[in-house]
Amino acid sequence: ISEMLEPFGPNIGSSEGELWRVHSRIATPSFDESTLALVRNETQKQAAHLRKDWLCKGTTAFEKEIYTLTMKIMRTVSFDFDAHSNINDSRNLHKTQSSGHKLSLLEALIGVVMHLPHILLMPKLLLRYSPWNAAYTAYSELDSYMDELLLQASQELERSSETPRRKGNLLHAILRHSQQNGRQEGGESPGKLSLTNQEIKGNLFIFLLAGKYLYYP
Asked: Where are the alpha helices (DSSP H) in the chain?
């Protein structure tokens, strides 16, 4: 069951004992007032856009539109950089252009959530040659986006001061806390103290999964 929760990597939901404590020490502080404010502000913004569309055009797909709103909020809170980022704007990654992506980030997120049973129950290689090729595509695309965004976040943190003022999104927060914990490695504290990129991706996935059921059961 633990391995089923690791399509993108080990995480706080699949680990136990001392390893769980490492994940918890790094992931829990990421849900601070800054993250909660980002959730609140993005929810208000997306709801205002949706209300404006409904007033102008009406709606015939209420459930689908609410679902898309949920996924947009989760995308922004988990991955989006703010407007003052000094690296390439990650919003470019939401578009299918010359980046080589087949799906936008939003489409990949929706695809993973829609095909979650197949992704959790089938190995990635087997999924590729199964009748659920759309599940494999979404899985691969989201994995690729997370790799790209992790690289961008790492580059930004390298250029930042030791205590950056800008909190950023959930990805930034987890990476930052992992690096801060990792500075203690080699000192008096024994054992593992930071997370690998695979483990950061795993935690982002498990939080997306939790957020999906929190916002839209």
From this structure: 17-27, 33-57, 62-79, 105-114, 116-121, 124-128, 133-159, 170-182, 197-215
